[in-house]
Amino acid sequence: MIDFFGVSDEADVFGQTVQLLDQQDFHLPPGRYALLSPVPEYKRLVIDLLAGIRPPKHGQIAITGSISWPLGRPSVMRGQVSGLDLITMVADLYGVDADQAGDFVSLLVSRPDLMDTPVDSWPPYVRSEFNFALGLVPDFDIYIIDAPVPFEQTRFTRMWKVLFEDRLVGKTLILSSYRPKNLLDYCDKGLVYTDGRFIIETDLEECIERYPARQAREELGFANNADSSKYSELDF
Amino acid sequence: MSPNDDRIARWRARREAEKTSREAHPDLPTDLAVIASRAEALGRGGEEDAGPILVLITESLRLLPRESVGDRRKIYDAIARGIEKGVEEAGDPQSDYAELRRRQLRTLIRVVEVDARAGMDPVADGYRPSGYDEALGALAESYAKRKARSETLARRSAMDGGEAYELTVPVEDEGDLLYLRDRLAVIDGARRFAAHDALLPGLSAWRALLRLQFAFLRSESRIALLWSFIGPAMLIAILSAGYFFLGARNILNMDVPTFAMIGGTTWYMLRNAMFRTSAAFHSKRALLNFRQLTPVMTGLSAGLIYMFSYIFVFPVLIIGGYLLHFFTLPHDVIGVAFWVAITGITGLAIGANFGVISTIWPFFRNLGPVIQRSMMAVSGTFLVSEQLPVEHRDLILWSPLTHAVQLVRQSYFEGYVSDDANPEYLFTCIGVLCVTAAIGQRLVRHRTFPA
């Protein structure tokens, strides 16, 4: 359950300061939501607020229960540190046993042999698998996914999907993906961010037609929001 | 096995197949019963491609009389009967898959018949019915849509019922899956704290960060680590050389090499604490994707790790230099350790303020080298305030760094007592810096976006 109390926020998007929310009160009950927006570039900013990883300029956001980091977000699992270092960090943060978490992730991913090498040296698909595999380790009340759910026909995908279905029972999901099938598979409602406010739509298919899921410009390789252009050094 | 034995084995296998087929389809002639039996597999398996049905049709037409429409009809009927039996055995004759196979067969019969009646030979090598791709492609497409729709409905039903949607995995994956589920149950059972606990997650977050920052430090090149020693050593050499050229051997009862070592090493620690802290506010923004972590935490943890590294650098330099007769040993070890730690904390507090400033004004980061050199001049690295004329001492005594480094030197050297270093002023500055950093961070936190 996520509640917004008088939330106002703004952000720099492609060099312009935009008002994301203005004195918004909003209640998001438990459920499975596909995050949609006519401007996909805003979705990442909105996810940051929903996930509680960036406070708004004004107002309060109350999150009831544990919430995941934005699973699948590529920047999360990067750096010169090894996969085992990142597993240890996540284990420390969420109070799980690092060795058990390491065993689990190693059993699930396609390239367990890379776990003790720097993450930046891994092929992108291994990083993505690692990111999603690690997301299964702590049991969250609210899952946030900021990438397409794994879809390649591999052992990892088959296993991950089954285990994720297990994890999702009775939990809340907020999924931001540019693949409509992902949204239809995992969600039953639309959480639409438009005109500076949130709307919950119950007819997901109609909602996807109205707000077609597409990639944001940063996902297509263009510059991210203005903030990223200011700080190009990303050594983690 | 001789060729004759091989032939006999094949004959026996054929006889066995014919016998089984007759038992399965007793009302059909043997040839048609065999075709029907072969068709069963096409309705039973998960194969979606229409190719194997076409192969069976053309092979059957080649083996049996096919001149009249009636002859061909008998073959088609046998295949249809086999497929029907196959889908029944598969368990769900009303499934989308069963419907797909029936439609594929009907479509193939239609296109083959059109060709046969037009005078084409369906049993010729490389035969492919005209209109095959269009007709079968449309069927495959509509099947894929129906399948997706059914899956979505099944998922919705599972969601509504509060159950996990059951995805099928290949038999070879079932064992692994069972084991992975078991591992997750063990992980859940051994979890140390729940999400709503307050104290433990806070402490764990710091532990997680410090361990990760140490991993970052470790992952840096060996030259970078070696620089922790080389940097101060070079500064010591430059400072000592400067004083020696001026003919100084002692500065206010402090021997020049040790004086330079204390100033140089403390400055490097201070510089690392300050600038690693402020840089991590932005360079470690990826860590902000974890809700428990804040820019201040990432900054301070980065600065702390570099500060801690001087726990090793100081003793190695002091003991090494002492053994080589360069440096003297400290007079008050605990006092030195205390004031070095306070100096590091001053650096962390300044770094946190720089981090806040650069959040509001990103260009501030480009001023790093200028700020660094300016601060070095007022850090007490090169001289202590007592070396300056009284009227000029205020030029450096405003800086808390000067007080901090002079207090380190006062603890180190028995013969030096600093008249100017003021612990109260230093602690007041640290307090003010901490408060401004905390307030500033609260005000600008929303401007720091997770990477």
TrEMBL record, chain A:
Protein name per Swiss-Prot or TrEMBL: ATPase
Organism this protein belongs to: Novosphingobium cyanobacteriorum
TrEMBL record, chain B:
Membrane-traversing stretches: 223-246, 258-275, 296-324, 336-364
Stretches with biased composition (Basic and acidic residues): 1-28
Region listing for Disordered, in residue ranges: 1-29
Keyword Repressor (UniProt): no
Keyword line: Membrane, Transmembrane, Transmembrane helix
Name listed for the protein in its UniProt record: Sugar ABC transporter permease
Naturally occurring in which organism (per UniProt): Novosphingobium cyanobacteriorum
